[in-house]
Design brief:
single chain, alpha/beta, nine-stranded mixed sheet, two-stranded antiparallel sheet, 5 helices
Length: 221
Amino acid sequence: MSAAVIVFPGSNCDRDCKVAVERSTGEQVEMVWHQETELPAGLDLIVLPGGFSYGDYLRCGAMAALSPIMQAVKKAADDGVAVVGICNGFQILCEAGMLPGALLKNAGLKYVCKPVGLTVANGQTRFTSGYQGQREVIMTQGNGDGNYFADAETLARLEGEGQVVFRYVDNPNGSVADIAGIQNARGNVLGMMPHPDRAFEDELGSADGAILFRSIYAAAG
């Protein structure tokens, strides 16, 4: 599998994502600076990492969504390449119009950083097929603006079309319908607030995140 991690000014989980994907799949990952206008050829996976792109100035992810590389990311997604946005990466995907909805301030206005339980709401995606019926997984939350919101019409579409991929067992931030991760209608773009890159080995408290990356690897053939 050929994968790349996009690096924005303020990203602080970019190298975490690189290590997580490499250790989970055994493949090398390239780092791509946000000012580039082209991606490496033949990618199977693009990761938008967590962190505080542009210091979370204006709205989280709003400035990063306008970075030059995002046009190439959108084109790759349109061509069917898997894209995963984690935490700030999820915010960027929403700001870029690649996923519906928005991430608001956490309920209670407190930064949440702790392991969280998730239910696999849709186990038949390219991101979750490797869980093979495993109903609950553990990953790590770390955000202040992780409260997912969508209007009633959008939410009904997400639910009806199986686009909700993960839900919180115990909602830590007020997200509507306990949503922790969603995918686009085509099923190749995933945004999630919990960090699989912080849960890819047992020594980190959970290796459930590695299964997500291996699922993408298996789907890529």
